[in-house]
Specification:
The chain is low in regular secondary structure. It has helices at about 30-40, 75-85, 90-100, and strands at about 1-5, 15, 25, 150-155, 180, 200, 210, 215. It is about 15% helix and about 10% strand.
Length: about 220
Amino acid sequence: FEMGSKDGESDEQPVHTVYLGDYWIDQTEVTNGQYERCVVSGGCSKPKNSGSSTRDNYYGSSGYADFPVIYVDWNQAAAYCTWAGGRLPTEAEWEKAARGTDGRIYPWGNELPDENLANYGNNIGDTSEVGSYPAGASPYSALDMAGNVWEWVSDWYAEDYYKNSPERNPTGPDSGHKKVLRGGSWFNIDSDTRSADRIRSSPANRIDNIGFRCAFSE
């Protein structure tokens, strides 16, 4: 598929062809309930905070079991995916799952997001239950790949990585200081929810609009 955007930020260029091996990706972001099972089993450590932007009791509350886990850093996300028998997706795997192979800007197509397609732009002011926007599904039926929470991927960040990215199964730079986040969040404007948009963060960052999903391969 064609990865990147000729109209996007400089770190989304050049657009380049990528070939990926077979893999699966979670249909939704990892939920509080799923993550809590890993904590109980000893495979994960608790999120930094049990609240959310507007809720005091979020993680550990049965009413929010199907909402995305937040306040987890990159290492906590990676540990969960390992516990679940998978791994964090690569940046390329995430982008293909989000936009398919036809060059669409958003998971659902090229039209701007609205309140029926994604949780973005602070229109709710907090996370929403995973899968609440079926109209915003990707070509592979992945949900919430635009908005709700930013998602950790496995790659280190480099602004110029696309200039020398390998054609097959790219995994990002060998080292770095920051990890890539994808997909935008409940707080972000529409341009941040584009499937090609890339941001970076310290892998130790744990805040109220970052979560993740896992990938699996043979």
